Amino acid sequence: MSQLYHIQLKASVSETYDLSDKTVHQLDLTEILPEDEMKDILKGRLQERGYEEKEPGIWSKQQEGGVEVNINLENMELTAHIKEEKELETEVAVRGSGYSRENARNEARNQLSHAQDSAKEKLDAEGQKLQRQLTKQLEEGEQERLREVNEILQEVYAESLKRRAGQLGEIMEIHESKEQGQYELTIHVTQ
Length: 191
Fold this sequence. Notes:
By secondary structure, this protein is α+β, with helices and mostly antiparallel strands. The chain has three helices and seven strands. The chain has one domain. The strands form two sheets. It has a five-stranded antiparallel beta sheet with strand order 1-5-4-3-2, covered by helices on one side.
């Protein structure tokens, strides 16, 4: 009579996923004053909005959800970047049987290998799902980021126009209004 051997093997399967995504927008700064003066005004407006100069010419701000917003004044680019590292882990257990210990061990190893491959595929699918969620999170804040940068640029243009008007003559009156997303600036100058 032969004896049946059973061997149980367990393993942990883990993968680390570096998830990231970014958006890049080119900004345009029409020259009303000399470029350096306009960029100085822009720096002041960025600072007022909570941006900090991370390195020379690059102003940065952390937004909700881990999104880092950078405005590069050298190439006039707005970059929003999100980055996250996730480690996913699962356990697999298999049982091999055979009429010898060696056969039972070999069957268990084969089953364990297949179970680990299957678990890794599931982890990869979960990693792809996390990447899509991260991308969606970045996209959800895109309109708000663009709105904020457009407001900042609008303030830079307004200040530049006021300074330029001051160079043309004596400013008698300045009238600014915002209605339904429209900005109007009227400057009366005497020469």
